[in-house]
Amino acid sequence: MTAPDAAPRESPLLETRSLTRILPAVVPVTLVQDVSLRIGHSEFVAITGPSGSGKSSLLYLLGLLDRPSEGEIWIAGTETDRLSSSELAHIRLEKIGFVFQFHFLLPEFTALENVMIPMQRLGKLPPREQHEHAEGLLAGLGLEDFLNRRPEQLSGGQRQRVAVARALANSPDLILADEPTGSLDSVATEQVFESLQKIVETQQTTIIAVTHDMDLANRMERRVHLVDGRIDYDRKQ
Ligand SMILES: Nc1ncnc2c1ncn2[C@@H]1O[C@H](COP(=O)(O)OP(=O)(O)OP(=O)(O)O)[C@@H](O)[C@H]1O
């Protein structure tokens, strides 16, 4: 008999089981092979590996932007394989924030408006609260004096911090970042990295970041190293 107070085994935030992605072609291309990972809340994980080792492909799978050929992706205990594209889009909007190497901010909108866009799409907060939340997120990233600037009026590091604020807009459990500092100089890299670190420390958010920057990778808590689409090692550091 099970003890009545036995705690149920908690689902990890993200779990993959034997994830494989093969591009069908005359000669099929294996992007990701047999990747099994369990990632919890408040983790800061680097994905590293040589060029072409499948880092971005894995991140796209984890972000439900691409579908696996084989294997499973579980998000907060939900298996995603049988979900419709609109259900996947909803999970992405509500639970996952994305930061890419290039900020992809909308040029005609201000920093504040860019950060409000995901909140408008989700539609959970009334407009006044969206505005206040966006202001708070930008202030938290040191951008309180730049709320009404458009992307072209900001430095590269400031733009990328606006992109981080936008990724945080709907309070996601998970942020996926593909080379978030790849286009930045060393000062801006440090600012963006410290912003990410603060998010992991002060919120329950998990960040998984692809990076070529070994100094940054070594400062993250866990490193998943890929070679030829497979996990070469996965270690806490
Ligand atoms: N659409 C595609 N068609 C053919 N091959 C592809 C395609 N997309 C990716 N690949 C190949 O799949 C492999 C993995 O690519 P991916 O971009 O995931 O690697 P990566 O580790 O992120 O590389 P990098 O560090 O250079 O960005 C590479 O060999 C790449 O050339």
Architecture overview:
It is a single chain. The chain has 237 residues and is α/β, with parallel strands linked by helices. It has one domain (14-236): Rossmann fold, CATH 3.40.50.300. 34% of the residues lie in helices and 26% in strands. It is built from seven helices and ten strands. The strands form two sheets. The chain has a six-stranded mixed sheet with strand order 6-7-8-3-9-10, sandwiched between helices. Strands 2-1-4-5 form a four-stranded antiparallel sheet, with helices on one face. Helix 5 packs parallel to helix 6 (186-202). Bound molecules: adenosine-5'-triphosphate. Residues 23, 29, 31, 49, 51-57 line the site of adenosine-5'-triphosphate. Adenosine-5'-triphosphate binds at residues 23, 29, 31, 49, 51-57.
**How large is the share of residues in beta strands?**
25-35%
CATH topology: Rossmann fold
Number of domains: 1
Approximate shape: globular
Structural class: alpha/beta
Measure the end-to-end span: 40 Å
What's the story with the biggest beta sheet? 6 strands, mixed
Report the helical percentage. 25-40%
Total number of helical segments? Answer: 7
Instruction: Tell me which CATH architecture applies here.
Output: 3-Layer(aba) Sandwich
Number of strands: 10
| CATH superfamily heading | P-loop containing nucleotide triphosphate hydrolases
Rg: 18 Å
> Order of SSEs, N→C?
EEEHEEHEHHHEHEHEE
In the sheet with the most strands, the strands line up as: 6-7-8-3-9-10
Contiguous uncertain segments of 5+ residues: 1-7
Small molecules bound in the structure, each named once: adenosine-5'-triphosphate
Chain-averaged pLDDT: 92
